[in-house]
Amino acid sequence: MNYQSLLYFKTVAELQHYTKAANKLYITQPTLSKVIRNLEIELGCNLFQKDGRNVILTRYGTAFYDYVSRALNEIDDGIATVRHMVDMEKNIIFISALFSLYSKFLPDQILQFRHRFPNSRFSIQHKFTTAILNDVLEKRSELGLCSNFEPVGKYAPLVNFHLYDEPLTIIVSKSHPFAQRDDKIKIPELKGEPFIVYIWTSLGTNKILTDLCAPYGFEPNISLEAYSDHGVMGAVAAGDGIAIMPKADCLNIPSLVCVDVDTGGLPFVRTMNLVWRADDPLPPLALSFRDMLISEANSNPE
Q1: How would you label 218-230 residue by residue, b for 16+ Cβ within 10 Å and e otherwise?
Q2: d(CA 194, CA 197)
Q3: Rounded distance, CA 107 to CA 194, Å?
Q4: What is the mean pLDDT of residues 227-236?
Q5: What is the bridge-based pairing of β-strands 158-173 and 256-259?
Q6: pLDDT of residue 234
Q7: What is the phi/psi pair of residue 234, to 5°?
Q8: Domain match, 196 and 183 both
Q9: Are residue 212 and residue 159 in the same domain, yes or no?
Q10: Which of these three, 51, 86, 121, is where a domain ends?
Q11: Rounded CA gap, 207 and 148, in Å?
Q12: Measured between alpha carbons, how far is 18 from 37 in angstroms, rounded to an integer?
């Protein structure tokens, strides 16, 4: 019994089909069948039984699957941890950041940092706020750059530092009635409008949208969820709905129109936060980069 045979067993159990499992594993079906049969001989029981064209776990297989699944997950986590340690020794800084930071803020900051530390390298994952926070929580990234959230409950282990505020706008397609308006759109007019949002969570611009609508007694009408800025803007340009976006990201896109909104006195900005774990010391280079960002923010208050 080895890692490979356990992986083969887990794959068959999840796909419930030998041919599909063999294709996923890039091996032949006879090879897969032989491995599973040897595993059954070693354990002294049948792990699968036929169910039409599929196979399902026997009661022995069901019991075994729970242990195998946990064991393989632990091994995978261990492999990822060791690789991460090796990468850190290669001076790689792991960051998860909002998509909008890809073209502004981060490139200048990284260039400035690399002038001071020429051997430093960056591995950057561009995601939405909830995914960024989860990356930092689960130690896939040392630092996160994300939008509005509170470090309570699940996020209590995180420390957040406010870097700057980013003005927001509502974007619409050129054919949308709002695009022809000279006056500000009032919040009640948003009731029933189909909204394009990032993968729906209660954080970031999604929370801002909910907080705008709540005082007027309605929830936003979510018509489509997109993973990135490009997905949101593409859906709006196609006429699938409207969206809240950072204003600077949309000013030079001909297919989109930014409209002014009367927020009733509420600030229409998203905070940009630097995030790290409070209970996990940062590697030296990640610590230096964090401190540089904080120093820059403190020396350039808005």
Answers
A1: eebeeebbbebbe
A2: 10
A3: 34
A4: 81
A5: antiparallel
A6: 85
A7: -65, -40
A8: yes
A9: no
A10: 86
A11: 8
A12: 12
Give the count of beta carbons closer than 10 Å to the beta carbon of residue 153.
6
Angle at alpha carbon of residue 54, lines to 48 and 56, rounded to 5°? 30
Residue numbers of the domain that contains 248: 168-269
Both tokens assigned to 231:
């997905």
Q: Identify the three-state secondary structure at position 225.
A: strand
137: which 2 tokens? 């929580």
Among 192, 194, 191, 189, smallest CA distance to 178 is for 189
Q: Are 84 and 48 in contact (CB under 8 A)?
A: no
What does the pLDDT look like over 14-63, one tens digit per residue?
A: 888 999 998 888 888 899 999 999 999 999 999 999 888 888 889 898 88
Q: Are 8 and 79 within one domain?
A: yes
For residues 242 and 262, membership in a common domain is answered with: yes
Q: Report how far Cα 149 is from the mean position of its chain's Cα atoms.
A: 14
Tokens of 130: 């909830």
**What six digits make up the tokens of 194?**
């189909």
CATH number assigned to the domain comprising residue 209? 3.40.190.10
CA angle 165, 242, 238 (to 5 degrees): 125
Specify the number of domains making up the chain: 3
